[in-house]
Design goal:
The protein is α+β, with helices and mostly antiparallel strands. It folds into three domains: 125 residues, no CATH class; 105 residues, no CATH class; 115 residues, Barwin-like endoglucanases, CATH 2.40.40.10. It is 36% helix and 14% strand. Helix 5 packs across helix 6 and helix 10 crosses helix 11. The two termini are 22 Å apart.
Length: 382
């Protein structure tokens, strides 16, 4: 799949009426946008911009659909393109075809900026409106394309016990001292082990591989170090020193697996069903433009099923690799795409119905985009 580019102009509300500002209905010509921002608007200039936004391998021909897409990308990437921000909120709203009257600007200010503040048309307030509208014009961009999905591997979850963390740290970062309860150091350990897991092959049924994964070469001295750690947790062995034997190696192997949860399905990605939704009451609830987090929905947000939320709470970012489009049975429609996908980052701001399991719902303002996205198999990385 090639990531298309999307933008959002969020919907505004009044007490009795919803004022919809829908990018799906925008018919702005990219020439008008480029003129507004004092940019070169020739066909060749637009062609270069089209390439810059990476719309697959499709050549720019200036069709209505291409101009529609290009306009959305231009509006959603004002800062990325280094365009000078507009000074006049009225002129900017007029360009977008949005009601620029004082009353509507007041609604926009209340909705986007500060619900309880009185809008007085001040310069700072107008700039806030412009800034928030630009933020709302959001584009999803692939961070990386054609990512190869690594084979499934079981991993490790770091223990909470400080003594075990310190042992690991000293073994893997010999020139740095361990600081108790330092989250950054623990994160460094996790990153190191994940990298080691991906780049090397380990058989966690063997003590040698378990020790190598944790940073210990298999020898008597290192086994003794780990054995002394084990004795802290098993009083029955407190007065027993390590002696080379199959029985002791099996005891040590079992303890390491238990304490570091090696081989306990601690995967670094999980396969999920990925679907799409729109701001429609029949797809959400009575407040379709408000996410469960309380934020206004926009593209780049996702909803997660309840079973995933415990691990990926509202407000957190997730990384996704799209594997392939699937049919109702869950089979890839293109078998050649099994190991290929686009990698991008999304933010969790919404939750799905409790009956949903192992599923992620990506938000699109336009119904056509959600239909085009369909159902996909994806890998949720962590």
């Amino acid at each position: 799949m090639k990531i298309s580019f999307f933008i959002v102009l969020i919907f505004s509300f009044s007490a009795f009426k919803t004022v919809a500002i829908n990018p799906c209905d925008l018919k702005i010509d990219p020439v008008d946008i480029l003129v507004f921002f004092n940019q070169e608007q020739s066909f060749s200039a637009r062609e270069e911009l089209w390439k810059k936004f990476r719309y697959g391998n499709q050549d720019y021909k200036g069709s209505a659909e291409q101009n529609y897409r290009l306009s959305r990308s231009l509006l959603g990437n004002i800062e990325y393109l280094n365009f000078e921000k507009p000074d006049s909120v009225v002129e900017f709203l007029d360009l977008l075809g949005i009601d620029s009257s004082f009353s509507n600007r007041s609604k926009l200010y209340s909705f986007y900026v500060k619900k309880r503040d009185l809008y007085r048309g001040e310069k700072s307030q107008n700039q806030d409106i412009i800034d928030e509208v630009i933020k709302a014009i959001y584009e999803i961009r692939a961070i990386e394309e054609n990512v190869e999905v690594k084979p499934y591997k079981q991993g490790v979850i770091l223990p909470e016990e400080n003594s075990l963390l310190e042992t690991l740290w000293k073994r893997n970062f010999k020139n740095q001292s361990w600081k108790k309860e330092d989250p950054e150091q623990k994160k460094q350990l996790e990153t190191l082990l994940k990298t080691r897991l991906v780049n090397e092959n380990f058989d966690f049924s063997k003590l040698k591989d378990i020790m190598l994964y944790l940073g210990f070469v298999e020898n008597i001295q290192n086994k003794d170090i780990l054995w002394r750690e084990m004795r802290r947790y098993y009083p029955i062995y407190r007065n027993k020193n390590y002696r080379k034997s199959t029985k002791n190696d099996n005891l040590l192997s079992g303890w390491l697996k238990e304490r570091y949860m090696i081989g306990q399905n601690s995967t670094f990605f999980i396969e999920v069903l990925m679907t799409a939704y729109n701001p429609l009451v029949e797809q959400t609830d009575s407040t379709p433009f408000e996410a469960a987090s309380g934020k206004i929905v926009r593209e780049g947000y996702v909803a997660v099923s309840k079973d995933l939320e415990s691990r990926f709470p509202l407000g957190s970012f997730i990384e996704i690799v799209i594997v392939c489009e699937i049919n109702q049975k869950g089979d890839c429609l293109n078998s050649e795409s099994e190991q290929i996908g686009d990698f991008f980052r999304l933010k969790i701001e919404d939750r799905m119905h409790p009956r949903k399991k192992n599923q992620i719902d990506i938000f699109f303002m336009c119904k056509e985009d959600a239909i085009d996205f369909g159902r996909r198999k994806a890998l949720l990385l962590f």
